[in-house]
Amino acid sequence: MWLTDELVTIFGIDEKLNGASAQRIYDQISEKLATPEFRPRALYERFNVEVLCTTDAATDPLTYHEQIRASGWRGDIRPTFRPDNVLNLDAANWRANIDALSQVSGIQVRDYRTYIAALEQRRAFFKQLGATATDHAVLTLYTNELSQADADVIFQRALNGDATAGDAVQFSGHMLMEMARMSVEDGLVMQVHPGSFRNHNASVYQKFGADKGADIPVTIEYTRNLRPLLNKYGNDPHLTLILFTLDETTYARELAPLAGHYPAVKLGPPWWFYDSLNGMRRFFDTVMETAGIYNTVGFNDDTRAFASIPVRHDVWRRAGANWLAGLTVRHLIDEEDAAVMARALAYDLAKQSYRFSPHESK
Amino acid sequence: MWLTDELVTIFGIDEKLNGASAQRIYDQISEKLATPEFRPRALYERFNVEVLCTTDAATDPLTYHEQIRASGWRGDIRPTFRPDNVLNLDAANWRANIDALSQVSGIQVRDYRTYIAALEQRRAFFKQLGATATDHAVLTLYTNELSQADADVIFQRALNGDATAGDAVQFSGHMLMEMARMSVEDGLVMQVHPGSFRNHNASVYQKFGADKGADIPVTIEYTRNLRPLLNKYGNDPHLTLILFTLDETTYARELAPLAGHYPAVKLGPPWWFYDSLNGMRRFFDTVMETAGIYNTVGFNDDTRAFASIPVRHDVWRRAGANWLAGLTVRHLIDEEDAAVMARALAYDLAKQSYRFSPHESK
Amino acid sequence: MWLTDELVTIFGIDEKLNGASAQRIYDQISEKLATPEFRPRALYERFNVEVLCTTDAATDPLTYHEQIRASGWRGDIRPTFRPDNVLNLDAANWRANIDALSQVSGIQVRDYRTYIAALEQRRAFFKQLGATATDHAVLTLYTNELSQADADVIFQRALNGDATAGDAVQFSGHMLMEMARMSVEDGLVMQVHPGSFRNHNASVYQKFGADKGADIPVTIEYTRNLRPLLNKYGNDPHLTLILFTLDETTYARELAPLAGHYPAVKLGPPWWFYDSLNGMRRFFDTVMETAGIYNTVGFNDDTRAFASIPVRHDVWRRAGANWLAGLTVRHLIDEEDAAVMARALAYDLAKQSYRFSPHESK
After folding, report:
1. Which residues, other chains included, contact B69 with Cβ-Cβ below 8 Å and sequence gap of 6+?
2. E strand or H helix at A348, and its extent?
3. 3-state DSSP call for residue C221?
């Protein structure tokens, strides 16, 4: 679907893609991409994008964001605060990342207290450049608050290169709670994307590096793992915690009940393998009866394929409209409500949930 | 669905419910509820209920049941034996509950033997007041038989306030098997409702107490956990063991095969979050090919919302009829069988499975 | 469906089967089965079967296979190498099975090295009689390579009757990897059927023995468990590893992503409880968007009911054609591709995946 729609709608190619036509189509695309109409900013405007958020390490100086802002271009490009590589003690190069954090924040990280201060400095800087959200990728969810003293003991071990696997679990579980606390304070929407076993294929990882398409989902547990965080912050009206999943069994069993109960919890749209027509249908089927649409955030895609943005939103809008039409013809909702819900799913919910108000725009 | 149907059918209100109409509709409902036609017994008769079962602690003296029987009213209201608060050693106030059990049974519970005797006395008393079933809510299923001696050692520790978490697991696992043994002997149908993490939201629990809507499902395992119980009692024609779930993944994987194999096992209808149109469709889809309808118990709702009873049964009947119609038009079953199956799903199976015979009626 | 179709199509009985007609129909079937037209070879030809594979223990001398070959009959009957009873140290009679392995292979198994040699001898012998595949049934998947020395230590303990439960897990996990290595070398397609808790009902097992219908599925985990095997052999073009499941939650979460990523991995069709109309619909729904049909193997049934073969394939073909028709009318694929895909699902994929080429036929 995506590819056909991109070829036809974006590139004006309606020849069927197969072995015989592949080279011809490749050449046509290359030709188009070399023209000014296919430069990223031109496409951004053609796609009528209102806002595009990048994902950036906590240690990123956001130079390009500053350049875009300085360029005078009207496009609304914002960073997203993703601190995985300084929160997970077992991240590759964690020690070097901490040094980078010191440098970029101007705060010498030498203990837990200065580490927290540096993270808060970065969040403020991201916010200043338009960020409205954070993002956290974890393999298994685990939350558990440590005392400041215990957190510092682990942090010192990590600085000395002596942290154990158990330390990493405890520390990440604690830092997710710290991220929720900071979100309550600074208003950044907190997103969690758990359950992807990264770099599953060791040869691909050795030859080509991280994130090359060899990530395979695992089961994930939300009910018990999120309880410490939700018991402390889940009832707080200042927090928006958006949960994603790669384990669809959690939609009806755990996620919809959690989103239905806790004021802070909202469900992200079908993600990755489930950002698809069937994935969306199953999401509507298993989530909405319990959670309702207003505990979801509508649709945001996390594509790395820029030209797929319009079709991905189009698929979601059609899937949502089709679901609402089914409810309407069976008289489970009426046409008046269906129209409001269609717009909410397609547009309003995402804008509200991620706190993109005109007031916050540049 | 439920709310609209209740408003229209029960209360005669067909104005659409929304922010503008809410106060007006609230007032109309209050007015209706104050009239004699909306007293519980009047609604029971209007709803054409044949039997209504309450859920009662093992320590409940069933005073109201005796009063209803003494009142001469024709309604068939029966108790259900739910001994969670004396079976789970880690139940709040377990020690006080044991004292209450001694008092209400007239048997001084001082060791495992007298404890069993008191439980058997209560079952007999419940049965005398019309009970045909027991109900057991457990977080995780675990069954394992202890020797009488080992059970007594744990029980004595619990009486002295020294029981460990491990003791509680072992004892509950043993007592589920004892409950199956007693059911084989006294004929009470045994129901198990596992997998709800109760009182998930600590603030709600502290402010408002137990069971206030903050219960979130967890995964549940039946195949391994129920094996000890099923190996001892699962082939016994005297036992009916009705299993419910909040983890739909178990329908096709574990529950339908277990119900298809063991003579004692039957599946309860979609429960709680799944007592819904989609929940029922998924139940029919994933259970029936393997288990067949005659290993299910049709429909019983466990509502606390009295006025929702008619619509909940109506939704089930329509969902069942719709499923059967789909099988019929595709010629997987014929019209003759469909008619019998529709009645079985709507009425006969529940009555038979819960052993409500005219003979047992008051 | 199966039974009705078998009665009508194979036995020419179109009277409806129920309590009243059962004895009459039983008699008619018995009468038919006594005629020459209903002998196995006649049915094989009538069913137009191209190839039928049996499942045989590693210790099986394959006498009947040699007899069929010697008989001059044109039917293509092949063995499949299933070594569970010599690979799993906790298999009933494992020690006796090893003696049988020595005898049948002509290699005196006295240590790990001779054990491997005997297994390789058997695989070569199976292959000589037409085998193109192996089959492995395990309760839980676990793969982990041991050094030859460590494998030998465990093997010696097992020969002496001293192997522990932990030894059995380690050894099976190692031997699954050895089987993959041998498949890379000899080209036998490797099938894994995990997740069935065998002989769940102890009384049935004691009275009637193994595999009498009391097998209940359990959850299964592929992502982490298969990683050691896939990291060593998953990218090897010589290996075809066909995975089956009794836990449908793994289709979208683990199996489709694994099959989509690793060149060696293909998904087997819906198996056992899921070899059904609904099971197939859910398979198409949850697998194909991520894996695509060319990472599946089309359909093979594993029936023990010979007369069910035609209808089982017919159900699959109709289910597949119905799914493709749905994609076609919604313009997700076109008619040209649908026709190719229908044939691939029904016929080509199974033949290619299991490496049945005319060249290999007798």
Report:
1. B129, B362
2. none
3. coil
- Which residues from A are below 8 Å from C when comparing CB atoms? 1, 16, 197, 200-203, 213-219, 246-249, 273-274, 276-279, 282
pLDDT tens for A285-344 read: 999 999 999 999 999 988 889 999 999 999 999 999 999 999 999 999 999 999 999 999
HSE-up (13 A, CA, CB side) for residue A300: 23
Looking at chain B, which subunits does it touch, using at least 3 CB pairs closer than 8 Å as the criterion? A, C
Per-residue pLDDT of chain B (362 residues; tens, 9 = 90+): 899 999 999 999 999 999 999 999 999 999 999 999 999 999 999 999 999 999 999 999 999 999 999 999 999 999 999 999 999 999 989 999 999 999 999 999 999 999 999 999 999 999 999 999 999 999 889 999 999 999 999 999 999 999 999 999 999 999 999 999 999 999 999 999 999 999 999 999 999 988 888 999 999 999 999 999 999 999 999 999 999 999 999 999 999 999 999 999 999 999 999 999 999 999 999 999 999 999 999 999 888 899 999 999 999 999 999 999 999 999 999 999 999 999 999 999 999 999 997 544 44
DSSP string across B134-169: EEEEESS----PPPHHHHHHHHHHHHTT---HHHHH
What is the H or E stretch that residue A359 is in? Answer: none
What's the pTM value of the predicted model, to 2 decimals?
Answer: 0.96
Q: What is d(CA C282, CA C293) in angstroms, rounded to the nearest whole number?
A: 14
pLDDT of residue C304: 86
Which of A140, A236, A253, A341 to probe by mutation at the B interface, max B CB count within 10 Å? A253
- Would you kindly state where each structural domain of chain B is located, as residue ranges? 1-38, 195-362
User: Which among C124, C343, C143 is positioned nearest to C243, based on CA atoms?
Assistant: C143
Q: Which residues pair with A190 in a beta bridge?
A: A134, A241
Which residues are bridge partners to B216 per DSSP? Answer: B197
Residue A247 and residue C253: Cβ atoms within 8 Å? yes
For residue B219, give how far its alpha carbon lies from the nearest alpha carbon of chain C (Å): 11
For chains A and B, what is the number of CB pairs under 8 angstroms?
61
Domain A195-362 top-level CATH class: alpha beta
Strands A216-217 and A196-197, sheet pairing: antiparallel
- Joined together, the tokens standing for residue C6 give 């078998």
Under DSSP, is residue B190 helix (H, G, I), strand (E, B) or coil?
Answer: strand
Contact between A262 and B219 using a beta-carbon 8 Å cutoff: no
Contact residues on chain C for A16, CB-CB shorter than 8 A: 334
Distance from CA of C253 to the nearest CA of A (A): 6
- Give the three-class secondary structure for A83: coil
* H/E run at residue A77: strand A77-78
Could you tell me if A134 and A188 are in contact, meaning their C-beta atoms sit under 8 angstroms apart? yes
Distance CA A287, CA C209 (A): 44
Distances (CA, A) of C154 to A301, C58, C172: 51, 20, 11
- Residue B23 parent element (H or E): helix B22-33
Query: Shortest Cα distance from A15 to chain B (angstroms)?
Result: 38
Average pLDDT in the C220-238 region? 97
Q: What CATH topology corresponds to C49-360? A: TIM Barrel (3.20.20)
Q: Which residue has the tokens 């009679």?
A: C93
Alpha-carbon gap, residue A115 to C195, rounded angstroms:
46
By a Cβ cutoff of 8 Å, what residues of chain C touch chain B? 1, 16, 197, 200-204, 213-219, 246-249, 273-274, 276-279, 282
Q: Give how far the C-alpha of residue B361 lies from the chain's centroid of Cα atoms, to the nearest Å.
A: 20
